[in-house]
Amino acid sequence: MRVAIPHQLDNDEVRRRMKANTASIGDSIPGGGVVTTAWPSEDRMTMDIGAMGQSLRANVDLEPGQVVLNVDLPPALAFVEPMIAGAIRSQGDKLLAPPKP
Fold first, then answer.
1. What are the φ/ψ torsions at residue 42 (nearest 5 degrees)?
2. What are 34-80's pLDDT values in tens digits?
């Protein structure tokens, strides 16, 4: 699954906001979830996600004008892909929001 989230920020600001807001990613997963993030390069964040008895690995790539989340959904979750993509778009906007003081 590939979900692009457009923005009008430069990548330095996107990176800063994502790092400031990553602690809240697990809060947005229905039923709760555990999310571990890492930055193997300055334009890629990886996420290990545990939720609903499933383990997922995702990449978030910073591109000019958008961040792109790529995740391989297991067959058990493929039928809910549209719902997951919508939730990612909604939460992606929150991830790119200015950090709260």
1. -70, -20
2. 888 899 999 999 988 887 777 888 899 999 999 999 988 878 777 87
* Cα(42)–Cα(55) distance, integer angstroms: 24
Q: Does domain 2-95 have CATH number 3.30.300?
A: no
Domain ranges in the chain?
2-95
How is residue 1 written in tokens?
A: 């699954």
CA nearest 11: which of 54, 44, 58, 49? 44
DSSP 99: P
What token pair was written down for 35? 């999310």
CB 74 within 8 A of CB 56: yes
The token pair that represents 80 in the structure block = 């809910």
Q: Look at residues 73, 46, 49, 48 and name the one whose alpha carbon lies nearest to residue 62.
A: 46
CA distance from start to end of the chain: 33
